[in-house]
Amino acid sequence: MASEGPAAILGTKAAHFVFVPLREQGHLIPAVDTALLLATHGAVCTIVAPPSTAALVRRTVEAAQQTGLAVRLAEFPLDYAESGLPEGADSGDLVPAIYMENYYRAMARLRAPIERYLRGSAPYPTCVVSDFVHPWTKELAASLGVPRLTFFSMCAFGLLCQHNLERFNAFDGVEDPNEPVVVPGLEKRVVVTRAQAPGFFRGIPIPWWEEFGDYVERARAEADGVILNTFLELEPEYVAAYAAARKMKVWTVGPVATYHQSRTTLASRGLRTSAVDPDECRLWLDGKAPRSVVYVSFGSISQAEPKQAVELGLGLEASGHPFIWAVRNADEYDETTRGFLRELEARVAGRGLLVRGWAPQLLILSHDAVGGFVTHCGWNSTLEAVTAGLPVVTWPHFTDQFLNEKMAVEALGIGVSVGVKEPLTYQAVKKEIVVGRDVVEAAVRSVMGGGEDAEERRRRARALAAKAQRAAQIGGSSHGNLQDLVKRFEAGPARGAAA
Ligand code: UDP
Fold first, then answer.
1. Is 358 in the pocket of ligand 1 (CB under 6 A)?
2. How far apart are the C-alpha atoms of 497 and 149, rounded to whole Å?
3. CA angle, 393 then 428 then 168, to 5°
4. Residue with the nearest Cα to atom 5 of ligand 1?
5. Could you report the per-residue pLDDT of 29-42, keeping only the tens digit for each?
């Protein structure tokens, strides 16, 4: 059932972290990177997952095992029938939204088999690290008699804003989801709408989700600590304030993507097969002037509607800058849009590269030729931009992305917004919001061009990148926090996770 790491670890007092990740790439990739980083510090890590999730991480885990890291991957089949989940509903790109409830139920049913497996594992687990969307790990950790940490690939700023909005009932009596509200309890003034920060699993008009949201919140509140994929120097005041608000220890361990130092793992990170040969992509970038290329991606879930794809393409073309555009699920577009993409590609041949599917994002962002990133502000992408020292054009689509945009534009001063104010996917009330080609062109020119503001954004981005690198190196804050985790959760007399 499990693929084993080196046998030498058995019988040691090493910390043994059990990771329970979510399947979505924005959760899964950083959780696995964190496990691998902990393993580089001497921990044993077991990643437990259903086969469809395990398949996405197997290549990365096996590569890590070959370098001698004590990382295991243990698979647990979902009980489709009992959970009302159609067989294989989790095997595609994303679990279809209509089955998400059943999927979460199916995941919760894995508790008993996972517990049985862990009881027999050596060394015995010393800590459960759970994605925050798996509240049932509270009972798993309690039965095993070990502490449980909640894992977020989110910034402390966003988490704190969301926490304070809920704790102080900031949206009470506010009818209009687009009415701006000041986030309570912050030193700086941050304004947000309910549509932009509805809270996790909130605002879905199905009672089950409301209950699930409460269960998630209880499990978060009762955790023994928090692991965040951010770094202290990026947002020291928010890390401290979030720890104080939650009354628990927060370990910042990011940017966890820094685990990937070799060309091979840089190219294959993302756990899916790249839609472009990474070497060809690198060669293409090698032919471009330093900092001249803009990279465009809306992450692993969001996708531009057909009309939006056309406006985005025309805006990129008009900007005059070389670009790489990761077009997710390009084959799902109607023939007109597919035709538009083909014609665009022909017109910008040599200057624009369309990647139809999964792009080797980290490899692209770390190339000298890239000078800016049009991003949907998923936290991983935002942090990856920071780590690469890149200014961003911000284009949030849903969930925490609006808060991440505020982080990039208002707190860090490295972003230019395209001005989207309402969610475009998931919790969105379906209405057509299209960012025009002129807006795209202006935002790209602004981030990529000359001028004092653009220079200032670049200067700030470079300074943040230097801080990110330092945090991950020996003596750095994230490096130290990883060491602390490994030490604190060694087997032995109860160490607890108190601050
Ligand atoms: N990613 C990638 N190639 C792609 C799309 C995404 O490597 O074509 C990676 C990206 O580097 C990031 C993650 O997938 O680590 C996406 O996470 P993020 O939080 O940015 O957005 P989400 O996909 O959760 O919306």
1. yes
2. 9
3. 90
4. 299
5. 999 999 999 999 99
